Amino acid sequence: MSRKVTNVVALLVLTVAAIPAFAHHAVQAVFDQGKKITVAGEITKVEFINPHSYISLNGKTPGGKMQLWSFELAGPGSLKRSGMSRADRGGLKPGDPVTIIGFPAKDGSAFGFVNEIHFADGRVFVLDNKDPYAN
Questions:
Q1: Whole-Å CA distances, 54 to 50, 72, 74, 92, 130
Q2: Model confidence, pTM
């Protein structure tokens, strides 16, 4: 293979490998860090995936109506520092009653970014949410 073809292939591989980085977002781009929301409810789904994990729960709106909420969690390093392991999904499982305190989505949807998770048994996980992209 010629050196020119090798360079083109290498450039193509690097370009494709960088695509996921463009999809990543800064916390302040999606969530209002000037406000906090508190949602209490029952976990319906836990996804420990990269680059962020997610928790879904049936929680009550301020008006008392049940609504499905989705919350984004910090990256794997922050979860590990807070005591949440990937192996046990942080001790989170469907059916668990929790209270989540976090930042609401700027678009007003039932979506937020987790800052604290309070369990019914008194355990509390406080997540390291320092946004590396924040100014």
A1: 10, 5, 9, 11, 17
A2: 0.70
| Residue from 22, 47, 32, 18 nearest 109 by CA | 32
HSE at residue 80, side-chain half, CA atoms within 13 A, is 5
Give me the count of residues in the chain: 135
Write out pLDDT tens, residues 68-82.
999 998 777 777 777
| Residues contacting 18, CB < 8 A, separation 6+ | none
Q: Domain residues of the chain, as ranges? A: 26-126
Determine the topology of domain 26-126 in CATH: OB fold (Dihydrolipoamide Acetyltransferase, E2P) (2.40.50)
pLDDT at 5: 53
d(CA 68, CA 59): 6
